[in-house]
Amino acid sequence: MSFNYRDDSLMLHTDLYQINMAETYWEDGVSERNAVFEVYFRKLPFNNGYAVFAGLERIIQYLKGLHFTESDLEYLREEGFKEDFLEYLKDFRFTGNIRSVEEGEVVFANEPLVRVEAPLAQAQIIETALLNIVNYQTLIATKASRIKHAIGEGVVMEFGSRRAQEMDAALWGTRAAFIGGFSSTSNVRAGKLFGIPVSGTHAHSMIQAYHDEYTAFHKYARRHKDCVFLVDTYDTLRSGVPNAIKVAKELGDSINFIGIRLDSGDLAYLSKAARKMLDEAGFTETKIVASNDLDEYTIINLKAQGAQIDVWGIGTKLITAFDQPALGGVYKLVSIEDEAGNMQDTIKISGNPEKVTTPGIKRVYRIINSMNHKSEGDYICLETEHPEEEERLKMFHPTHTYISKFVTNFHAKDIHQDIFKNGELIYKSPTIYEAQKFAEENLDVLWDEYKRSLNPEEYPVDLSPLCWENKMSHLEMVKSKVKNTQK
Ligand SMILES: Nc1ncnc2c1ncn2[C@@H]1O[C@H](COP(=O)(O)OP(=O)(O)OP(=O)(O)O)[C@@H](O)[C@H]1O
Ligand SMILES: O=P(O)(O)OC[C@H]1O[C@H](OP(=O)(O)OP(=O)(O)O)[C@H](O)[C@@H]1O
Ligand SMILES: O=C(O)c1cccnc1
């Protein structure tokens, strides 16, 4: 086994069955037929009322210049793929269209997030990577948003790299967390690659290396003007905080005594006691940083106890999406070109009504009330429809259709952007700061009832009457086909 292919690529970052299906299409002469797939998830993660979309930047990087390298083809040859098909794969490039919601967009269950319109074989092969990217990054951006929501105005540092499911997750996870509202990361490479602010304190090992806090704090301060001293190595209130105060007093203006960090024990009690000691010593501006397996639940609880924590350091429970380790995003075929060159909508049936796919090439509009600028819900319609031109819109629940309302005086915002057109990247990515701000603005459009972390209201994601009728007629068509097969 070798990891040293000079031309390793992400092309084979797919499931074998995708390549087998692509081969089937190619051999049958249908590989170039236009196909439309949609990425969406069926259930919001963490029982949250919304999700924050992330992953587009990596999708762009992945698709740009995607091709089979020599060693990719060599490997497929060894796996038994034949020369004629390998010859076809040699010229593989992504030549399709991508429409996607932007990073930081607030999204909901059952609405298309990314739409791929491409030759069938291409659209098939890229499924695995697209889901891999969107499922993880959206999960982490959403977890980060929940944590940030619990914190409110406070600063939150991302500390997860050491606990992440390997390096890619640490890197892209911290980026997603920044989009979701985090303030900085401890991962220096993420700072370099993405421009996320980096920040950090120091570890217990530094105190242990010098055997005492007083010496360690002094040594650290010689090269680091901005100091956050970790105070819980031996005894927080009897040793850590007094030593930090002593060193800060001795060094005076030659350092910025920015803060102390608590990493164990009763964080509510210790933070209150430490606040008192710092204030009494005149360090009223010195902040208290807390870490230790924190998540939104502990944060809310600590706040309820009156904890005096200004800055939060969050690792494991964010980066591993501890309470829900996967988002179940799927990739479904909704329309495909027939022999005559016409697009035919397709459906996948399930005993579970929530799992029946919605056929057709669609758009998603956020229906924003023009009076209060809050969203009435999302409206999924066929691409040919123009709700933005309507005066009055009927919105109804797609499975419980009796739940309906008429909306007037609204603005319909198309939540997707064109990203690739005929294989060419036409989208200009925002900065990471713009993506974070975009997420904040999108959350502002939601009523608080959808944003609370516990038992939020269900946000309406509705189908247009035309889209719904199209779904019903395909359902009927498939049912009668099945009946005829049984005869
Ligand atoms: N006042 C508090 N209320 C609720 N949870 C708290 C409070 N203080 C700390 N916690 C949380 O309780 C957990 C305590 O973890 P644990 O039992 O491992 O103790 P510890 O303080 O980390 O001890 P150790 O010295 O072994 O590191 C952490 O998740 C921490 O965030
Ligand atoms: O608790 P998390 O949310 O995962 O945040 C990251 C943790 O990583 C560090 O602990 P670790 O024991 O790895 O190293 P240390 O010796 O520096 O405390 C740090 O002190 C945090 O507790
Ligand atoms: O800078 C810190 O305090 C830090 C960084 C990574 C993990 N835990 C803490």
TrEMBL record:
Domain Nicotinate/nicotinamide phosphoribosyltransferase: 156-355
Key word Glycosyltransferase present: yes
SUPFAM superfamilies given in the database record: Nicotinate/Quinolinate PRTase C-terminal domain-like (SSF51690), Nicotinate/Quinolinate PRTase N-terminal domain-like (SSF54675)
Source taxon at top rank: Bacteria
Transmembrane portions of the chain: none
One Pfam family here: NAPRTase_C
All residue ranges annotated as the Nicotinate phosphoribosyltransferase N-terminal domain in the record: 12-135
KW Glycosyltransferase (keyword) present: yes
Residue span(s) of domain Nicotinate phosphoribosyltransferase C-terminal: 362-470
InterPro entries: Aldolase_TIM, N/Namide_PRibTrfase, NAPRTase_C, NAPRTase_N, Nic_PRibTrfase-Fam, Nic_PRibTrfase_pncB, Nicotinate_pribotase-like_C
EC number(s) given by UniProt: 6.3.4.21
Maturation and modification: Transiently phosphorylated on a His residue during the reaction cycle. Phosphorylation strongly increases the affinity for substrates and increases the rate of nicotinate D-ribonucleotide production. Dephosphorylation regenerates the low-affinity form of the enzyme, leading to product release.
GO molecular function terms listed in the Swiss-Prot or TrEMBL record: nicotinamide phosphoribosyltransferase activity; nicotinate phosphoribosyltransferase activity
Pathway in which this enzyme or protein is active: Cofactor biosynthesis; NAD(+) biosynthesis; nicotinate D-ribonucleotide from nicotinate: step 1/1
Keywords assigned: Glycosyltransferase, Ligase, Phosphoprotein, Pyridine nucleotide biosynthesis, Transferase
Function: Catalyzes the first step in the biosynthesis of NAD from nicotinic acid, the ATP-dependent synthesis of beta-nicotinate D-ribonucleotide from nicotinate and 5-phospho-D-ribose 1-phosphate.
PANTHER family recorded: NICOTINATE PHOSPHORIBOSYLTRANSFERASE
Family: Belongs to the NAPRTase family.
Name this protein carries in UniProt: Nicotinate phosphoribosyltransferase
Species the sequence originates in: Niallia taxi
